[in-house]
Specification:
This protein has 256 residues and is an alpha+beta fold. The protein folds into 2 domains: 77 residues, Glutaredoxin (3-Layer(aba) Sandwich), CATH 3.40.30; 110 residues, Glutathione S-transferase Yfyf (Class Pi), Chain A, domain 2, CATH 1.20.1050.10. The radius of gyration is 19 Å and the shape is globular.
């Protein structure tokens, strides 16, 4: 286990396309723990191709390769748990008491099962799907609202999800909540309307240097790759257009 001394620590390689929220859950934890890392960024259309599928056969990001412990991992929740267990000697963003430790794990799992899938699917039907399907839009927007309600009620009178300090369980919610206006297609000032506790909680996290640095890195990578806010190339607005472009690019590449 790491003792906090960078002198004997190799950089962890972290694989991601720049747009996806799940990748930045891990980046902000790496920043909070001050673990040396290097980003290996690649385009979304390469996520299901070699060499990345040699690292994650499921073809999803993020993934890490850690030479310090000779381990490769994928799934953002698994990576966060690994980092907390192996790179957090001072217990900066966790607890090691039985009750708190398991409550942190509980909220992390709720983020992965509740927030991530619902926010992502709501964003797909609101923004990317070529046809507007009112029943699907209503279904997933309602689920976003429901989960926000759970959080807002829990956070009444509290600053953090567990205990009296920020933890990885809080930080895991940050990237998807940060782009909620893009998911729901609403003004940024209205994305937490009706959920004042969630709004205040989010703002506490978003003001941290770790998050600001992560978002500066994301903006730079997005610009370098010519990507718009939704992760697709600038000038392309729907997933159908993006899929057609990728297919045309592959066809042109094969014909050479």
């Amino acid at each position: 286990m790491w003792d906090g001394d960078d002198a004997n620590l190799d950089h962890v390689s972290y694989f991601l396309p720049a747009p996806g929220p799940n990748s930045w859950k891990v980046i902000v934890v790496l920043e909070e723990l001050q673990v040396p890392y290097e980003i290996v960024s690649f385009r979304f259309e390469d996520v299901k191709k070699k060499p990345f599928i040699d690292i994650n056969p499921n073809g999803r990001v993020p993934a890490i390769v850690d030479p310090n412990n000779d381990i490769t991992l994928w799934e953002s929740g698994a990576i966060i748990t690994y980092l907390i267990d192996n790179y957090n000697p001072k217990r900066l963003i966790t607890y090691d008491t039985l009750r708190e430790k398991n409550h942190l794990n509980q909220w992390l799992h709720f983020q992965m099962s509740g927030q991530g899938p619902y926010w992502g699917t709501a964003g797909h039907f609101n923004v990317l799907h070529p046809l507007k399907l009112p029943t699907a839009i209503e279904r997933y927007n309602d689920q976003v609202t429901r989960v926000l309600g759970v959080l807002d009620e829990w956070l009444e009178g509290k600053e953090w999800l567990v205990g009296d300090k920020i933890t990885y369980a809080d930080l895991a919610w940050l990237p998807w909540n940060d782009r909620l206006e893009s998911v729901l297609l609403c003004p940024a000032d209205d994305k937490f309307a009706g959920f004042p506790n969630v709004k205040a909680w989010h703002e506490r996290m978003a003001s941290r240097p770790s998050w600001k640095k992560a978002m500066e890195t994301r903006a730079r990578l997005m610009d370098e790759q010519g990507l718009d806010w939704h992760g697709m190339p600038k000038g392309i607005d729907t997933m159908k257009e993006y899929e057609e472009k990728m297919a045309a690019d592959e066809k042109a590449k094969a014909s050479k």
